[in-house]
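ok, trying the design again with the full structure, not the truncated one.
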C-alpha cells in the first residue's frame, strides 16, 4: 500500500514560513537559511483531501512524468472524485488534440490498449513508459470516463520553436489559441531559468522557447474549457506536469479566464520544497519505480513496414542470436508487430534476461525472401 499523506498549504497555518533574512557579511558558522515548518501532526489524508475537493469543478493534479507514485496518487484522486460524482472527464497533457477520436474509441471499447498507443502515436510523441499511466487509462475505460487530449500537436509547437509564432502561416495561426496572456513576469523569469540550464542556450532563442510554453499552456486550457463549457454540469481532473500547474501560472489561470467554477491545484512535493503560493494542496508520496522492460538491442527504421533493423546497440541480444541489419521484424514473443508502438507494447510485458522468439524476414540473393525464427535474450 503506497504511503500517502496530503499537506494543506494555503490555510489553517499548517506551514509557518519564517521571515526572510537579509544578506550580511558573517562568518560561515553564523550563516542561516530561511526555513518553513510543517506541522506533521496536522497532516491530512486522501479522504480529507477529497472532501475539500468536493465542490471544485476542476482539479489539476501535477506530476513528475517518470514518477510512478505520482501517477498512483493521481489515480486515487480520480477514483475519489468519481465516487463523489461520476459525471467527470480526465484531461491529459500527454495526448495531442488531433488524436481525440482515438481516445474516444478506446473508452468506447472499439480498440484495445495496443491500438490506443499505436493510433495515438503515444511512443513517438510522448515517449514515457506507457505502464506509468496504464492504471489510469484502465480505470477510465472500465468506468467510461471520457479522456480528453489537451495538448497542441507537436507539428505546431515545433514550428514555433524554430521561428516563433510570427513564422506561422494563416492556416496554422487559426489552429492556435487566439488569447495568449503574456502578463505573468514571474512565470517568464522561471522559464528563463529553466532555459538557461538547457544545453547550449546561446544557440537557441528564448523568445521562441517562451512562446512554445505559452502555447502549450493556453492550448491545454482552451481545450479543457471547451469540454467543460459544453458539459456545464461536469467536473474535470487535469493531469499535467507540475510545471504547468505550480503557482497557477501555466494552465490554471488561463483556464479560469475561460470557465465558471472553482479550481484546485494539487502538487507533488518536489525538491524545491514548499512555498504556500505554489498551490492549494501537496501530496507526499513514497517513491516507487517500475521494473525495467526488456530490450532487443536494435535500432529501427520505422518508416518502412515491416519495421527494418538498421543497427545494434552494444551487447545486443538480437545480434548475438543471429539477427542481421536490414532484417524486417514480423513478430516478437509470438505477437505480430507492424510498428514501433507494437514492439514497445509487446516488450513492456517482458523483463531483461527473458528469452523470446523473434520472427524476422530476410532477403537473400540466392534463396529470395525467407522467414526465420530466432530466440533472443532481452537485455
Amino acid at each position: 500500500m503506497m504511503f500517502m499523506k496530503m499537506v494543506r498549504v494555503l490555510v489553517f497555518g499548517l506551514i509557518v514560513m519564517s521571515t526572510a533574512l537579509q544578506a550580511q557579511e558573517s562568518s560561515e558558522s553564523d550563516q542561516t537559511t530561511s526555513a518553513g515548518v510543517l506541522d506533521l501532526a496536522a497532516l491530512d489524508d486522501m479522504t480529507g483531501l477529497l472532501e475539500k475537493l468536493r465542490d471544485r469543478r476542476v482539479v489539476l493534479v501535477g506530476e513528475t512524468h517518470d514518477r510512478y507514485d505520482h501517477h498512483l496518487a493521481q489515480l486515487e484522486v480520480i477514483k475519489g472524485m468519481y465516487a463523489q460524482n461520476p459525471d467527470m472527464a480526465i484531461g491529459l497533457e500527454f495526448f495531442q488534440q488531433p488524436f481525440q477520436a482515438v481516445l474516444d474509441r478506446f473508452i468506447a471499447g472499439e480498440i484495445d490498449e495496443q491500438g490506443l498507443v499505436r493510433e495515438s502515436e503515444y511512443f513517438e510523441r510522448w515517449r514515457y513508459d506507457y505502464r506509468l499511466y496504464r492504471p489510469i487509462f484502465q480505470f477510465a475505460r472500465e468506468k467510461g470516463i471520457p479522456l480528453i487530449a489537451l495538448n497542441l500537436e507537436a507539428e505546431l509547437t515545433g514550428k514555433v520553436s524554430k521561428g516563433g509564432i510570427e513564422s506561422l502561416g494563416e492556416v496554422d495561426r487559426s489552429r492556435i489559441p487566439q488569447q495568449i496572456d503574456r502578463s505573468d513576469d514571474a512565470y517568464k523569469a522561471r522559464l528563463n531559468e529553466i532555459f538557461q540550464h538547457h544545453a547550449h542556450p546561446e544557440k537557441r532563442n528564448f523568445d521562441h522557447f517562451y512562446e512554445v510554453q505559452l502555447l502549450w499552456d493556453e492550448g491545454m486550457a482552451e481545450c479543457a474549457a471547451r469540454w467543460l463549457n459544453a458539459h456545464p454540469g461536469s467536473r474535470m481532473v487535469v493531469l499535467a506536469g507540475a510545471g504547468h500547474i505550480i503557482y497557477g501560472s501555466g494552465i490554471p489561470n488561463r483556464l479560469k479566464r475561460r470557465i465558471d467554477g472553482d479550481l484546485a491545484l494539487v502538487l507533488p512535493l518536489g525538491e524545491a520544497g514548499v512555498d504556500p503560493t505554489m498551490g492549494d494542496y501537496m501530496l507526499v508520496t513514497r517513491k516507487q519505480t517500475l521494473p525495467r522492460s526488456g530490450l532487443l538491442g536494435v535500432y529501427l527504421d520505422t518508416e518502412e513496414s515491416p519495421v527494418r533493423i538498421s543497427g545494434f546497440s552494444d551487447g545486443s541480444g538480437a545480434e548475438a542470436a543471429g539477427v542481421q541489419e536490414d532484417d524486417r521484424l514480423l513478430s516478437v514473443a509470438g505477437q505480430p508487430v507492424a510498428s514501433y508502438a507494437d514492439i514497445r507494447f509487446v516488450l513492456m510485458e517482458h523483463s531483461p534476461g527473458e528469452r523470446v522468439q523473434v520472427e524476422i524476414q530476410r532477403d537473400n540473393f540466392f534463396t529470395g525472401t525467407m522467414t526465420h525464427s530466432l530466440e533472443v535474450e532481452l537485455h
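Keeping the full-length input from now on. The longest strand covers residues 355-364.
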